[in-house]
Amino acid sequence: xxxxxxxxxxxxxxxxxxxxxxxxxxxxxxxxxISPETADRVMxxxxxxxxxxxxxxxxxxxxxxxxxxxxxxxxxxMHLPVLMQFASGAVTEAxxxxxxVLLMTADEGPAGLARVAASAIVDGLILMDVExxxxxxxxxxxxxxxxxxxxxxxxxxxxxxxDLDFTAAGRACAEYLRxxxxxxxxxxxxxxxxxxxxxxxxxxxxxxxxxRSGPATVQPCPDDPVxxxxxxxxxxxxxxxxxGLAVHNEPAVGHVMHALADAGKLVGEDFHVVVxxxxxxxxRVHPQLPSVLVPAETLAETAVRHLMRKxxxxxVPDSTLIEPQLTIR
Amino acid sequence: xxxxxxxxxxxxxxxxxxxxxxxxxxxxxxxxxISPETADRVMxxxxxxxxxxxxxxxxxxxxxxxxxxxxxxxxxxMHLPVLMQFASGAVTEAxxxxxxVLLMTADEGPAGLARVAASAIVDGLILMDVExxxxxxxxxxxxxxxxxxxxxxxxxxxxxxxDLDFTAAGRACAEYLRxxxxxxxxxxxxxxxxxxxxxxxxxxxxxxxxxRSGPATVQPCPDDPVxxxxxxxxxxxxxxxxxGLAVHNEPAVGHVMHALADAGKLVGEDFHVVVxxxxxxxxRVHPQLPSVLVPAETLAETAVRHLMRKxxxxxVPDSTLIEPQLTIR
DNA sequence: TTCCTCAATCGAAGCGCTTCGACAAGCTTC
DNA sequence: GAAGCTTGTCGAAGCGCTTCGATTGAGGAA
Lengths: 329, 329
Prior knowledge:
Chain A is α/β, with parallel strands linked by helices. Chain A contains 14 helices and twelve strands. Chain A has a six-stranded parallel beta sheet with strand order 2-1-3-4-5-11, sandwiched between helices. In chain A, strands 7-6-8-9-10-12 form a six-stranded mixed beta sheet, sandwiched between helices. The radius of gyration of chain A is 25 Å and the shape is elongated. The termini of chain A are far apart. At the A-B interface, helix 4, strand 1, helix 5, strand 2 and helix 6 of A face helix 4, strand 1, helix 5, strand 2 and helix 6 of B.
């Protein structure tokens, strides 16, 4: 039952090293200078005893919990693998800063934010998948809890936001297709519902895609097989010269490929397709497609790093856009 | 900066309600009887002030953190969406018990377990994706930290384990195919590497599939398009009467369907396919396939519930197998 | 009435840590 | 060689909570 380190306190370490408890604390935190000999003795005692400071006691005394919260969206339509990559990326980065990560779900809403803020269980907060009109944003501002948002709400005044540069992603897709010699290109987007909900994201892709170069169409599309089939057919009918397609709708990718095959298009030869979405989606169709991925890990690392800086009282840019990367396969 | 509830302590609540701090504590915890009038006054004060107990102070005084840890595997080959469903299911269930969830990654290994145990940052632990020979298991046993494992290590003595009943899943697939009149059936499994690593899981499916009924083949298979294509071809060549296939290899499902189409098989008519894997995989091919899913949410809820019981000193079964559900589409 | 019981409440003692002020030595500096 | 700095260390206070007696007053038994 009582393993090593079980119930070991700073007093035990102090006794073993022959110093005062406060000295141990200073060795561990580095907040006052301690002679190398003493420090060594303390570190040795820490190692011998397998000592780890009691998190609650530390948080009570220092007013720093050493924990950040991450609030995940639970809503459908979020791509789960990306979320997971994000979460694990955030944990990994947080651990580098000696922080732990508390997982919350968006369905706790503003009340959840108030709870963690008041209970001081976390020092800061990362809010994922922020919508243009997000009810949590106002609460966040009121609480004054250090935070970083993934995504941009309508009013980002005074907030720290990080996101993929979706405009650049749209532009990259258009450029890729143009370079392949496609004269007429189209963007097959997500369902109308997505556009309606979070204009920020889908619209920025559209803007980037349309850009300033040549004829281009943008077509929202539901993700069920039948709708995709129909939408692609209509798109081809309406644009006879269409030779390039960007797909910003993960679940639809497979169906798009079928529809193109049915229409007699040879993808990779007389027709080009590029995906905005996670690698797996682009890899698991035949032929494999080039894609612009949502760099979940980078996004997570950036968010955590920014939050750490804020907690340390350093300043960070209000708005950070991560450059998209187009992978050719 | 200082919003409501910011810095509010139990003393503030006590003052407002005209009682002692200890009384507030007893009202909140229900550990001693308090007159209804007093309780009402206290609750009112709590509401007025937006009071939430300081988590660190509470954990220090009560030796209960109100947080459980969840250790996620980061290894490739784990299906990310399932992990995510699991994580969010666990958080949701934990919140029902007024607990928070700390996210850890498996790469912290045994040392991570020792850390969270010694720092008392969590009260208990859920370990996902436990392997047959898992180095964390021994540490866990030594630490005596209340825990629930997802999966079964070789030596589960004294541990609480929860998992999908994979044997039953294999059996269900075989039965489904038999019922469709398939005489000769096969199981297309994961790559050899998976079998090698975690015998428990893949082998149990195989056993269930082979069962006692009629001719059946089990064929491990890598998940790249080319290998899948070849494996399916060989399988068909070696078993000319094959009319039923179970696929226990998520990324391969799409390729399997192509290979069968190439071989002239009409899935759903003269040939039947069933998937062991998440819904999306089975839904996003044409035709949609029946599937046995890993019930991530149920698994997570069960794990959390078991852990809560252990924390309350109640006992729980050492081993819990969740019944698989075959969904027909 | 007196004594006892029991329910309701209070006060104080920690939980294990950080941090502040104090205090010895060992240095400079004039 | 006294006055002033540093440097390294200690002791004590206190963070906000829970919990363990102790205390009070009301009601019942004698």
